[in-house]
Amino acid sequence: MYDEDDYLLLSGIQHFAFCRRQWALIHIEELWVENRLTAEGRVIHEKAHDPFFTEKRGDVIVSREIAVHSGELGVSGQCDIVEFHKNDDIGVNLRGHHGKWYPIIVEYKHGKSKYNDCDRMQLTLQAMCLEEMLGCKKMEKSCLYYGETKRREYVNISDDLREKAKTMLSEMRDYYKRRYTPKVKASKSCMKCSFYEQCLPKSVNGKSASEYIKNALLECVEKG
Ligand code: SF4
């Protein structure tokens, strides 16, 4: 069990999965740059958050901005929304409510479903925290709600995602301990990155940053 002083910020795993250097710039070097994508994300989160709001709709209780943590994983953060669905077989007791209730997280994201697992990794960690806090069985699924498509993507919280999340967490902890910021590794993620200007030098080996990325991507494609 980790000491609370050693907890990492849960949401950091999406930065880390996107680009390890980006995570280090935010969480170790404490730089933060807002671009259109992060601003959109913030607005979507603000809409989801109403900290004192709990609503009951038939057999579903909706709770917003739930703080979550795990001593076993050493992380803390929050969930935008947790829906508790009535289920006497696999649910848990909730104070003030009769019967048993099974949690499903709804995490708000800007844009649309991504080719990488960044958002799914964050959802997985949130689910693992909730399981520990509620003492419930393994959550089979939860969902991501995308602002652009206005759709839910249901994610199977698989053993594979759980293992990946744990491995990434121990890598993050190691970087954090060593105050290690990885070097630039250009990828197509750079084009959407809020650190594009700060991270990439204006010119690399005599080439502009965008030319540098283009060449790095071409090299990746050629290497297959
Ligand atoms: S610009 Fe590219 S290498 Fe730099 S932090 Fe962003 S994604 Fe990572």
Q: What descriptive keywords fit this protein?
A:
binds iron/sulfur cluster; 38% helix; Lambda Exonuclease, Chain A; alpha+beta; 224 residues; two-stranded antiparallel sheet; eight-stranded mixed sheet; 7 helices; 10 strands; 2 domains
Helix-strand blueprint:
Elements: E1 8-9, H1 12-18, H2 20-27, H3 36-48, E2 54-57, E3 60-70, E4 75-86, E5 92-94, E6 97-109, H4 118-134, E7 141-146, E8 151-156, H5 159-178, H6 196-199, E9 203-204, E10 207-208, H7 209-223
Parallel strand pairs: 1-4, 6-7
Antiparallel strand pairs: 2-3, 3-4, 4-6, 5-6, 7-8, 9-10
Helix pairs in contact: 1-2, 1-4, 4-5
The structure holds iron/sulfur cluster.
Concise summary:
The chain is α+β, with helices and mostly antiparallel strands and 224 residues long. The chain is built from seven helices and ten strands.
Task: Summarize the structure in words.
- The chain is built from 7 helices and 10 strands.
- It has helices at 12-18, 20-27, 36-48, 118-134, 159-178, 196-199, 209-223, and strands at 8-9, 54-57, 60-70, 75-86, 92-94, 97-109, 141-146, 151-156, 203-204, 207-208.
- The chain is globular.
- 26% of the residues are buried.
- The mean pLDDT is 85.
- The structure holds iron/sulfur cluster (SF4).
Helical segment count: 7
Number-wise, the strands total: 10
Give the tally of structural domains: 2
| Low-confidence runs of at least 5 consecutive residues | none
What name is given to the CATH topology of the largest domain?
A: Lambda Exonuclease, Chain A
| SSE string, helices as H and strands as E | EHHHEEEEEHEEHHEEH
